[in-house]
Each structure stands twice: as structure tokens, then as C-alpha cells.
Design brief:
By secondary structure, the protein is an alpha+beta fold. The chain has two helices and four strands, in the order βαββαβ.
Length: 72
């Protein structure tokens, strides 16, 4: 499992958090650790999912993600 921290633009409330949480939890190989307004921390299996797919999932529910920090 690798660690990934995201900064997410466009989030302003609990409904936003829930949408991002659901989008991330629906990805195979992703372990959601925390989602808050403007950020998310997760673990992911690089053999099952890429950071690009993770960013696309968040973008797909209407927010602007970017990688804040990635670690092995």
C-alpha cells in the first residue's frame, strides 16, 4: 500500500465530503483513511489503481483534486 494525500478544490460542506468519500471508496485497491473539506488521505495498491485514476474519480464528482503528497 502506498500513501496519497490530496488537496481538493471546490468542497464546502458535509455533502461534498460524502460525495468524495463515496467516489474514492468505490475504487478497487483504494483504502480511504480520511476525507475532510478540501482534503483526503488514502492508501492505494499501485498494482490495482493509479493516482491518475484516483484523481479522475474525484474530478468526476465535480471537484478539483491535486496530489499534495505521495509516499511509498
Amino acid at each position: 500500500m502506498k500513501n496519497l494525500s490530496l488537496q481538493i478544490g471546490g468542497m464546502s460542506c458535509g455533502h461534498c465530503v460524502a460525495r468524495v468519500q463515496k467516489a474514492l471508496a468505490g475504487l478497487e485497491g483504494v483504502e480511504v483513511r480520511s476525507v475532510g473539506v478540501g482534503s483526503a488521505k488514502l492508501g492505494y495498491d499501485p498494482e490495482r489503481v493509479t493516482p491518475e485514476v484516483i484523481l479522475e474519480a474525484v474530478d468526476g464528482v465535480g471537484f478539483e483534486p491535486r496530489v499534495a503528497e505521495a509516499q511509498s
